[in-house]
Design goal:
Distance between the termini: 57 Å
Helix content: 55-70%
Strand content: under 5%
Number of strands: 2
Radius of gyration: 23 Å
Number of helices: 7
Largest sheet: 2 strands, antiparallel
Structural class: mainly alpha
């Protein structure tokens, strides 16, 4: 519960306005998570239209223009909630950012602030990607030798594009796996499953996200070579 600073009445943590005096509530240090802030359950398949509708409805309620003649505390609260709402919407509208945010809420963060890998998630090559990484590194070494020897651009660029194909396929497979695991998570939430069952899905999601990030790094490396 949180207390309204205007009338002292209690309000749920996810309430935006005091149920007694209807004043906007300060965000405070115990702000609800992004899901609760937008009135959503902690699930991963969020309808884009529903999310957009919730965002726009709250944007109108919090807009600073409505608090132009309000007290300084109310104006500050409207700015705080507007800013937090923008962060929540930006995070939850992206499926992969939504997964990473949920993992953070559940104590399995894959990054620290600013997208930096967390100490627990730092690793060398994910085991599922060893074969692709070794093959790609060998191909990149050969491509660099071709470029250094003055080989035509079409020759080494063609090899890079060929090397990119299995990595692209791996990324597509991971996207499908993340979607499947997201659906399993939502089903467990709906069924009120045990923490152990939910944790198994979260661990699998975390592995897929870490592998996905590594795959993106591999593709970025190929792109740099093509542009180089």
């Amino acid at each position: 519960m949180q207390a309204c600073r205007e009338c002292g009445a209690g309000a749920p943590l996810d309430a935006h306005f005091c149920p007694q005096c209807r004043k906007i509530l300060p965000l405070g240090r115990r702000a609800p998570d992004y899901f609760a802030f937008l009135g959503l359950r902690r699930t991963l398949n969020v309808g884009a239209a529903d999310l957009e509708q919730r965002f726009r409805a709250l944007s109108r309620q919090f807009h600073p223009d409505y608090f132009y003649n309000a007290t300084p505390a109310e104006r500050r609260a409207s700015l705080e909630r507007s800013s937090y709402l923008n962060d929540a919407y930006r995070t939850l509208k992206s499926p992969i950012a939504r997964v990473e945010y949920l993992l953070g809420l559940e104590g399995l963060a894959t990054t620290t602030g600013g997208g930096v890998p967390s100490s627990e998630s730092k690793q060398t090559v994910p085991p599922a990607l060893l074969e692709e990484v070794f093959a790609l590194n060998e191909e990149l070494d050969e491509v660099r030798e071709l470029r250094a020897s003055g080989a035509p651009a079409d020759e080494w660029k063609g090899r890079l594009e060929h090397a990119q194909q299995p990595i692209d396929a791996k990324r597509a497979a991971h996207e499908a796996q993340v979607q499947e695991l997201s659906a399993r998570w939502d089903a467990l939430v709906d069924a009120g499953a045990s923490d152990r069952e939910r944790r198994d899905v979260l661990n699998a999601l975390r592995d897929r996200v870490l592998e996905r990030n590594y795959i993106n790094n591999l593709l970025a490396g190929i792109q740099r070579e093509l542009e180089g």
